[in-house]
Amino acid sequence: MLIKKGISVAPGFVIGECYCLDSNEFPIQRRSIPAADVPRETARFQVAHASAVEELQGLAERLSGKIGPTVGILEAHLKLLQDQGLVRQINEEIVRNRYAAEYAVYHVCRRYRKRLTALGEGDFFAARAQDIQDIERRFLTHLTGRRRVDISKLDKPVIVVAHELTPTETAGLDREKIIGFATDGGGRTSHTAIIARSLGIPAVVGLDSITADVVGGDTLIIDGSNGMVIVQPDEETEKKYRALERNYRNLELKLSEELRDLEAETPDGCRIRLLANIDRPDDIRAALDNGADGVGLYRTEFLYVDPRDLPTERTHYEAYRRAHAEMGGREVVFRTLDLGADKFDLDGTSKEKNPFLGCRAIRHSLRNIEMFRAQLRALLRASEHGPTRIMFPMISSLQELRQAKDILEQTRQKLRAEKVPFAPDIGVGIMVEVPSAALLIDMLLDDVDFVSVGTNDLIQYTLAADRLNEKIADLYQPAHPAVLRLLQRVLEESAKREKPVSLCGEMAGEPVYTILLLGLGLREFSAAPATLPEIKQVIRKVTLKEAQEVAQKALLFRDATETLEFLRKRTKRILPDAF
Ligand code: PEP
Ligand code: MG
C-alpha cells in the first residue's frame, strides 16, 4: 500500500480500478527468452513492425489533403518506423541479449529517447522524443495485441490517472464511467479540477509522480476531501473508505434534495442567483438537479474536441439550441470561444513561448474572424430558443471589447439582411479575468450590460502564479489582499452603475469564500452544479449584515493565509460541519 499526498481539488471518496492515460498502459518487464525461441521472437517483431507500418500508411492516406500538421506527424512517424537503424537495433537486442520482443522495443526506444533528451532542451527535441514514444506505443500495441482503450467508450467505471489532463482529453472522456481523477501536475483551477467538480467526482492533483507509481488495473482510493491517493490499499483501509464513500454520497444526495427547491436567500431577505458552469448541454441535467437558476458560464470551447473535425456554424447552433431546450426557459450565459493557451491548441505546430500571455480567448477570436463570426451567428440564431446573454473572455482593453462588439453588430446586420430571426434583447458582457480589466472597470462598464469575474485567471494574472503549476500552488491565493481589492473594486463600480456582476471562477463554488463574496456585494454566483447546494446552505445561514462585517474585516488582513483562516473560522461558526 502506498499513500500519496497531493492537492485536493474536488471532495469525496472513491475506490476503483486505475486507468492510466500515460505510458504505463504497457508495463513492460525485463524478460529473457531461451536461445531456441529467438527466431520466433524476431518473427513476432517483424509481424508487429509490418502491421505498424501498414496501420500508419492507412491513416496517412485517409487523412491526406486534410489537416497539414497531423499528416506531417504521421509521415514523420512512418519514416521512424522505416528507419533501419531503429529496427536493426531492436532485432539485435532480441538476438544478442535474448530479450523478449516487448522488452527489446522498450529498451531501444528508451535509449533513443534518452539520447534525444541529452542533446538539448526545447521544443524540437521534446517533439522528437514524443515521436519515439508514440512509435514505441505502436509497436507494443501490435506486440501485446492490446489496443489503447478508447476513453470515449469505457466498459466499466475507472479512476483516470494522468500526468495532466488536457481539455481535449477531458472533452473526449466517457463521463458516465469516470469515477475519480489523480494527476501528477495541476492546481485548484486546472482543467482536471474543473471537470471533476462539474462531474461531482473526487480528484487529487499535484501528486508529482502518480503515473509512475501505478499500473493500469491497480486498485486506487481517491480521498478528494483530504488530498490523498492510496495505491493498492490493504483490506482494512479499503473497508474504511467504502464506508466513507457511502456516507459521503448519501450526505450529498440528501443536501441537494433538501435544498434544491429552497430559495438562495439570506435570513434577512437578500435573494442570490445561483447559476451553473457547464461545458456541454449534457451538464444541464446536473445543473437543474442541483437547483441552478440558470447557466452563468457555458464554456463553448468544449465543442472543439478533435482538430480534424472542427465544429461548423451548424454544430454550434445545435449545441446552443439543445442547451436552451434543456434549460426550459432559464437564462444561459454563453462565453465565446476561449481557445488557445491550455485549451485546445488547434494548430499544435504553433506553440507559443508564454501561451497564457499569448493568443488566447478573445485575442484568438479576433485573429480568426471567420470562426468567430460562425459562432456569433449560431449564438444569435439560437437566441430564438431561450433567454441569452453573450460574454467575451479575457478582455484587457476597451478597444478589444469594441472590436468584438463591432463584429457582433455586423453579424446581427447580416442576419437581419438575410431575414434570419434572433432575439432583440441579448445582454452583452465581458469576463473580468485580467487586472487591466478590473482596474478599468469604470470605463468598460459603460459599454456592457453585465460583467462576470473569472477569478481562475484573474488570480493567476494578478499574482503572476500559473494556475496549472503545482510547484507554486501555495502562491495561487484567492484570498490574497490584491485579489480582494480588485474584486471589491469591480463589485463597487458595477453597483454604482447598477450593472449586474457575477463571479464564475472556482472561488464561487468554494463555501469558504461565500460569506466574503456576499459581504463584498456579489449577488450572482456561478459554479460547478455539484457545489451549488453547499453554497446555498451557507447563504441561507448568514445575514447580509454579518457577511458585510466579515468582508470589511477580511479586507484588512495583509496576509492571505490569515484571511483564509479567518474565513474558515467564520464559515465553521455558521456551518459546523463545513470542511
Ligand atoms: C476563470 O478564469 O475564472 C474562468 C471561469 O474561465 P476558465 O476557468 O475557463 O479559464
Ligand atoms: Mg478564464
Note down, in words, how this protein is organized:
This protein has three domains: 2-23 and 149-235, Phosphohistidine domain (Glucose Oxidase, domain 1), CATH 3.50.30; 35-144, PtsI, HPr-binding domain (Enzyme I, Chain A, domain 2), CATH 1.10.274; 266-578, TIM Barrel (Alpha-Beta Barrel). The protein is built from 22 helices and 16 strands. It has helices spanning 38-63, 68-82, 84-97, 101-119, 123-144, 167-171, 191-199, 210-213, 235-259, 284-289, 313-327, 362-367, 369-382, 398-417, 435-439, 441-445, 455-463, 481-496, 514-520, 532-539, 544-554, 560-574; strands spanning 2-5, 7-10, 13-20, 158-162, 178-183, 203-205, 219-223, 228-231, 273-278, 294-299, 332-335, 388-392, 427-432, 450-453, 501-503, 524-527. The protein starts with a strand and ends in a 5-residue tail after the last helix. It binds phosphoenolpyruvate (PEP) and magnesium ion. Magnesium ion (MG) binds at residues 393, 433, 454, 456-457.
Bound molecules: phosphoenolpyruvate, magnesium ion
Q: Percent range for helical residues?
A: 40-55%
Mean pLDDT: 89
CATH structural class of the largest domain: Alpha Beta
Q: Compute the number of helices.
A: 22
- Unreliably modeled segments: none
CATH-wise, what's the superfamily of the largest domain? Phosphoenolpyruvate-binding domains
Strands in their spatial order, largest beta sheet: 1-8-7-3-4-5-6-2
CATH topology of the largest domain: TIM Barrel
Distance between the termini: 26 Å
From the coordinates shown, what is the CATH architecture of the largest domain? Alpha-Beta Barrel
Shape from CA axes?
globular
Number of E-type strands: 16
Largest sheet, strands/sense/barrel: 8 strands, mixed
Structural class by sheet pairing and helices: alpha/beta
Number of domains: 3
Measured on Cα atoms, how large is the radius of gyration?
Answer: 26 Å
Percent of sequence in beta strands? 5-15%
